[in-house]
Design a protein that fits this description.
Number of domains: 1
Largest sheet: 6 strands, antiparallel
Number of strands: 12
CATH topology: Jelly Rolls
CATH superfamily: B-lactam Antibiotic, Isopenicillin N Synthase, Chain
CATH architecture: Sandwich
Strand content: 15-25%
Shape: globular
Keywords: Iron, Metal-binding
Radius of gyration: 20 Å
Oligomer: single chain
Pfam family, one: 2OG-FeII_Oxy
Order of helices and strands: HEHHEHHEEHHEEEEHEEEEH
Structural class: alpha+beta
Length: about 325
Amino acid sequence: MAPVPISPIKVGHIDDVQELRKAKPTIIPERFVRDMTERPTLAPTLPSATHDIPIINFSKLLKATNTDEFRSEIINLTTACEEWGFFQVVNHGIDLSLLESIEKVTKDFFMLPLEEKQKYPMEPGTVQGYGQAFVFSENQKLDWCNMFALGVEPHSIRDPKLWPSKPVEFSETLESYSREVRKLCQNLLKYIAVSIGLKGDVFEEMFGVAVQAVRMNYYPPCSRPDLVMGLSPHSDGSALTVLQQGKSSSVLTNGRYKSVEHRAVTHKEKDRLSIVTFYAPSYEVEIGPMLELVDENNPCKYRRYSHGEYSKHYVTNKLQGKKTLDFAKIQVTNSS
């Protein structure tokens, strides 16, 4: 059964950033203005920087295990997970037209009139629907972002009344897209297991019926991007976040594989859209470091817990970097 979070504060319609953008305010509302220590540093992106991001060629992982191509790509995957905590996947096999279609229906949804989007509200105590999640107090700063989130698998976590009727092709496109991403996640976890010397099916057997959800984020342009945050710094509560690896993998590998902290910033003139899939163990599954990865040189760093227990903790706390990982850490005290 899905965890039941406590009730956060319901954000008013006046805080809808698309509506704020339409009004073209000369001053950013105080609710969105970050404290000096939280404001983003908007350094220019260097063209060469993209070449440093780990790239995994998925087609090479499909080669026979005794080939040089496979072994080389497994090494690349290990390095990406240990040193970065995220990587870009190329030649993943998902049809480009499907990726374009999900982007189109997502953008079309956000461009609907506010009255239409309000038919699918993110009610207090939930993380599905349209609105802002992780808001728990009236004075908490808001992200310069509109969100639309849905539970996808298993069907028991879905809230059918939140699946929109407009655009008309939205539900069918999301179903097709989520099916392909699910297969990709299953395969990536298989190769991640191999990369740390485990059986390829170890995560599939452990996860049970994996939980899958999607969150769509729309970031309108902001006249003062130096004052706001598109999405607060955080790391994800899933095993895999497409395309970023999340916190459960950090626990399962006893800290060997990273859980990367990330954020989103805004742009003065351009809007931005992201579609994020979260793939995680069944809520009933107990999570803890794999015994094969614990020894006297690498003692156990995390306690065991049910994934449902952790998910409840994650959705009932505001985004605060990697602090939610403290939930699972074993605390060491000095008794002297």
